[in-house]
Amino acid sequence: MKWAFWILSAVVVASTVTPATAQDPSDAERRRIEAIVKDYLTANPEVIVDALRGYEAKRQASAEKDAQAAIVANRAALENDSTSPSVGNPKADVTVVEFFDYHCGYCKKVLPSLQEVLKGDPKVRTVFMDLPILGPGSQQAALAGQAVWTLAPAKFFDFHVALMQTRGALDETVIMDTAKSVGIDPAKLKTAMANPALKAKIDANMELAQKLNINGTPAFIVGEQLMPGAVDADTLKQAIADARKQ
């Protein structure tokens, strides 16, 4: 509200001081102007509400435009990087990209929606971009996911789902037990996780997220649309339909 007050004050000053005598108002004049502005805003509070709405609409439109440009500029890294785990039709006409963290409760919540979309639409593919921002356990889980992708790509989604359905903290024991439950040799997985290329890949994901102004998980990209936060199946389906029209 303070910024609106001073803007309106400036307008009043501009309308009450002629160019020939333009100068900083005296203390008495300033108090008179502030009283006028205060009375006006008290009588017309909708002015502030309208100004805030207009500002937010412009800010959001600018952010969406910037996001679209960043998505187009980084399309290959988002959709065509073979080191990014993916599931679904390799010849899909729409690719859904998810930035996620294995410790993220909202990522866990949105998983059933993603499964529903993949099951119901044979022309969709999903790319999973690790964004481990919730501590060391997230980092370790991300390395494990990347390692599973390199060892046994066909088992990645089973591992991903199993780890996402795990409740509580993720440590080495939990991760290895989860891998074993889907047919991955824990010893081989641990060795694969030590490959520095996997850490480099995760670092690249973090840099890509920064370019796209993604600050949390989950975040989905469908076509040229960035959708932060947990979305339901219907929202994903609509975004996919919109992408097919582009």
Automatic annotation (TrEMBL):
Where does the Thioredoxin domain start and stop, copy by copy?
Answer: 62-245
A Pfam family reported for this protein in Swiss-Prot or TrEMBL? ScsC_N
List the Gene3D superfamilies hit by this protein, alphabetically. Glutaredoxin
InterPro entries xrefs: DSBA-like_thioredoxin_dom, ScsC_N, Thioredoxin-like_sf, Thioredoxin_domain
Query: Out of the domains of life, which is the source?
Result: Bacteria
Classification via CDD domains: DsbA_Com1_like (cd03023)
Cite a single GO MF annotation.
oxidoreductase activity
Q: Which UniProt keywords apply?
A: Disulfide bond, Oxidoreductase, Redox-active center, Signal
SUPFAM superfamilies this protein is in? Thioredoxin-like (SSF52833)
Q: Which residues form the signal peptide?
A: 1-22
The UniProt entry, under PROSITE patterns, shows:
THIOREDOXIN_2
Which PANTHER family does its entry note? Answer: DISULFIDE BOND FORMATION PROTEIN D, GLUTATHIONE S-TRANSFERASE KAPPA
Put simply, this protein is called DsbA family protein
Q: Report the source organism.
A: Defluviicoccus vanus
The record lists the lineage as: Bacteria, Pseudomonadati, Pseudomonadota, Alphaproteobacteria, Rhodospirillales
